[in-house]
Specification:
The complex is a heterodimer of chains A (265) and B (238). Chain A has 265 residues and is mostly helical. Chain A has one domain. Chain A is 74% helix and 0% strand. Chain A contains eleven helices and no strands. Chain A is globular and about 60 Å long. In chain A, 51% of the residues are buried. Chain B has a single domain, classed as Rossmann fold (3-Layer(aba) Sandwich), CATH 3.40.50.300. Chain B contains nine helices and nine strands. In chain B, the strands form two sheets. A six-stranded mixed beta sheet of chain B has the order 5-6-7-3-8-9, with helices on both faces. A three-stranded antiparallel beta sheet of chain B has the order 2-1-4, with helices on one face. In chain B, helix 4 packs across helix 5. The longest helix of chain B is centred in the last third of the chain and has 16 residues. Chain B is globular, with a radius of gyration of 18 Å. In chain B, 48% of the residues are buried. The chains are: A mainly alpha (265), B alpha/beta (238). Chains A and B meet through helix 1 and helix 5 of A and helix 3 of B. The structure holds adenosine-5'-triphosphate (ATP) and magnesium ion. Magnesium ion binds next to helix 1 of chain B. Adenosine-5'-triphosphate (ATP) binds next to strand 2 and helix 1 of chain B.
Chain lengths: 265, 238
């Protein structure tokens, strides 16, 4: 199994995906956060809390959580790329026990997702601290709490990458799979939040669970304040973590089991 | 070289209405090059995919050295295969690709340079596969198949895209491989291509094995391989 993980890692490292991933992570973490922290608060309607308050920090970090579809997308593109470029035959000939090949892939892409999350987290921390210094304010949360928040986000990134691999292994067609990932995380989940009655399940969806993880209630609060819709009660950060891990487990089982019997040509 | 025969018994596969392979049975022996000949759509690729466990037969079995492909202890150390589905990721270099699959198959890293030299791709090993020509890709696929020093080769239309020098080289290579005791099963839809490179022939037509045996017995009665081919495919389906 270790040899297979090393093999999958060698495959990943032979492409440009890891570099692209980490650059994206840095861009998302550093750039996006700096933008939010420096320009966003105060200038928007309604005014957002500044980063000198706990709510403000949580808001900025939680917005980072909205970018978690990126590691999901990376996992999806990697798996469907094997079908698209027909290297999947080479892979399954080398490892005819397909389940083992996919477990190795999940480990490697879970790791890449975590690396994405970690780089994005460091970028976010740097941007937050830098923005606070520039604006001459103290950050709204102690360093320890910030690190914990960001570490959770990095773990969530690993979970999202695993979800992405599973979606890719299921759909196989690259465009279809990418469409599913974007359509779901970008659109469907947010739409569900707007439907009264249905939105009670939102905290138990990946996006809602991630929001719980970082205590990020901005989206639902904002919607609740603007529209006459009752918002679902958020679950605790630990509950959010458990829900996310549950999704990762289901995704892993699906990704390993589904391709077992399918024909490759 | 260990010797492993390929034994196909009653393999069948249907895609909806199409009976792609119908109860196909044949053998490919160690020390011999076996040609798998049939017109377009005869079921060659489908059969080979089932032999290699990439596709699931509706009935029948395929064994290599007595075991199904997926049950082999060292699959790529036993069988090397080039099929339509053995592609490579375009953003990798040839070297990156070979290294990754050597690692995945548990083969020594020095094999990368060995197989590149054997297949004549050393020169462009550090270029991205995106820029490879069709013939270069075929050679890379063959190099990948050779990473594990297999004793069985299964090749689906291996000379597609090769230049004349490449075709001659491949023929010599396969003859030498069988000469060392290896088993070679290669498909083609071009009669003349096989004439000088094979010992045994398996003829497949519309999913059925129409004839199999040593090549000289096949051509014996007819004036040429071509007329023998036509005679046999007509015999089965008048
Ligand atoms: N996945 C599939 N779905 C539907 N039909 C298929 C599928 N794969 C193969 N077929 C059909 O099965 C038959 C055999 O196809 P196969 O590719 O095995 O032929 P072949 O002998 O390799 O032909 P060629 O010389 O053109 O490569 C054809 O009629 C083909 O259309
Ligand atoms: Mg074919």
């Amino acid at each position: 199994m270790i040899a297979l993980v090393r093999g999958e890692l060698a495959k990943l490292l032979a492409t440009r995906l890891p570099v692209a991933t980490l650059l994206t992570a840095l861009g998302c973490g550093l750039g996006f956060t700096a933008l939010l922290a420096l320009a966003g608060p105060g200038n928007s309607t309604p005014p957002l809390p500044g980063i000198e308050t706990p709510e403000g920090v949580s808001l900025v970090v939680g917005m980072g959580g909205l970018l978690l579809f990126v590691p999901a997308l990376i996992g999806t593109i990697a798996v469907t790329g094997e079908y698209r470029h027909r290297s999947i035959g080479t892979t399954f000939l080398t490892v005819p026990r397909r389940g083992r090949a996919l477990v190795a892939k999940l480990v490697v892409f879970g790791g890449l997702g975590f690396a994405y999350g970690a780089v994005a987290a460091v970028g976010t921390a740097v941007a937050l601290v830098g923005s606070a210094a520039l604006r001459g304010v103290a950050l709204g949360v102690p360093a320890g709490a910030l690190v914990a928040m960001l570490a959770q986000l990095a773990l969530a990134a690993a979970v999202y990458a695993v979800l992405g691999v599973a979606i890719g292994a299921l759909a196989r067609q690259q465009l279809v799979a990418v469409g599913i990932v974007l359509g779901y995380f970008y659109f469907l989940e947010h739409v569900l939040l707007l439907i009264p009655g249905v939105n009670v399940i939102h905290p138990f969806l990946p996006g809602g669970a991630t929001a719980a993880l970082t205590d990020f209630t901005f989206l639902s609060d904002a919607i609740g304040a603007q529209l006459p819709i009752s918002m679902p009660v958020a679950i605790s950060p630990i509950g959010g973590a458990l829900v996310l891990l549950g999704y990762a487990a289901i995704a892993a089982v699906v990704a390993v089991a589904v391709p077992l019997r399918r024909d490759v040509r | 070289m260990n010797s492993h025969a390929i034994e196909v018994t009653g393999l069948s596969k249907r895609f909806g209405e199409v009976e792609a392979v119908r109860a196909a049975s044949f053998r490919a022996e160690p020390g011999r090059v076996t040609g798998f000949l049939g017109p377009n759509g005869a079921g060659k690729s489908t059969t080979l995919a089932m032999v290699l466990g990439l596709s699931r037969p509706d009935a029948g079995t395929a064994r290599i050295g007595g075991a199904a492909y997926r049950d082999l202890d060292d699959p790529t150390g036993t069988v090397g295969a080039v099929l339509d589905s053995t592609g490579a990721h375009p953003s990798m270099t040839g070297r990156g690709h070979l290294r990754a699959y050597a690692e995945l198959g548990g083969h020594a890293r020095r094999r990368v340079d060995d197989v590149a030299l054997t297949t004549g791709i050393t020169e462009y090993l550090d270029r991205r596969i995106r820029g490879y020509s069709t013939g270069m890709r075929r050679r890379l696929a063959l190099a990948t198949a050779l990473l594990g020093e297999p004793s069985v080769l299964v090749l689906d239309e291996p000379s597609n895209g090769l230049d004349p020098a490449g075709i001659v080289w491949l023929r010599e290579f396969l003859r030498a491989f069988a000469g060392r005791g290896g088993t070679v099963l290669l498909s083609s839809h071009v009669l003349t291509e096989l004439q000088h490179s094979i010992d045994d022939l398996v003829l497949i037509d519309r999913g059925r094995v129409a004839w199999s045996g040593p090549l000289d017995e096949f051509t014996g009665a007819a004036s040429s391989l071509e007329s023998a081919f036509l005679a046999h495919t007509m015999e089965v389906h008048p």
